[in-house]
């Protein structure tokens, strides 16, 4: 390890380049991981809320509504059903328009429809539930926030694909740059390596300082990338909390952030070792 530190001090600019490319790679890993996890949390939040609302005709009987509830629950796809009577609908209306007395005077419970608010276990089942409700004679209207759900799913899928592509590209660039930098250092010590071989040094004994160096670049880069992304998240959290009102995205569990750091360090160590092994194989592996 002391030899690895000595290599770093002797070529600070090359070392800085290796650390920066690793930091950029793991900053990307951190940012897209946080975005994807946050997107899944938002989707889970909407999945737990009533996503399909069926408004009934005035002639709908309570027994017919109860039978419809039983049929929906029997599908095994419905997570929850809430019946909202005309009186309850009026209370909700009053709460939503409490600052406008004129609107309150014009509306009574008789003109508001009773409804069922339905949520599903899987967001992909919403369309089928909505189509089923549209075919029920006692249902007057079905409100289904299809565009919102579809947009959330599309964004999550796109983030996952873009993030994976960027991470793979940057990981490849990191390996290439680190292999080049460490390869230059190995070439500069070619005579020392030959002397060590003549006095009986093993291949692993010669290689380990360079492997430690690659791992060191990776660990430092991963730590910098994780720190920047975490600091940015904490800085933006007040704005995000106000923007995502009602969605339990914050506070972020510290154990999750710690687990993300540990995972990135393990990945960084792997990238560093692979880069170093490729570089030293040309001379030491002969």
Task: Write up this protein.
With 286 residues, the chain is an alpha+beta fold. The protein has 2 domains: 2-45 and 150-281, no CATH class; 52-144, Alpha-Beta Plaits, CATH 3.30.70. It is 72% helix and 8% strand. It has 10 helices and 4 strands; from the N terminus they run ααβαβααβαβαααα. The chain has a 4-stranded antiparallel β-sheet with strand order 2-3-1-4. The longest helix is centred in the middle third of the chain and has 43 residues, at 146-188. The radius of gyration is 30 Å and the shape is elongated. The mean pLDDT is 77.
The percentage helix is over 70%
N-to-C SSE string, H for helix and E for strand: HHEHEHHEHEHHHH
Overall body shape: elongated
Number of domains: 2
Range of strand content: 5-15%
What is the topological layout?
Blueprint (H helix, E strand, L loop, with lengths): L1 H9 L1 H36 L4 E5 L5 H13 L3 E7 L1 H11 L4 H6 L8 E6 L5 H9 L4 E6 L1 H43 L1 H9 L4 H41 L10 H28 L5
Antiparallel strand pairs: 1-3, 1-4, 2-3
At a glance:
The chain has 286 residues and is an alpha+beta fold. Helices cover 72% and strands 8% of the residues. It has two domains: 2-45 and 150-281, no CATH class; 52-144, Alpha-Beta Plaits (2-Layer Sandwich).
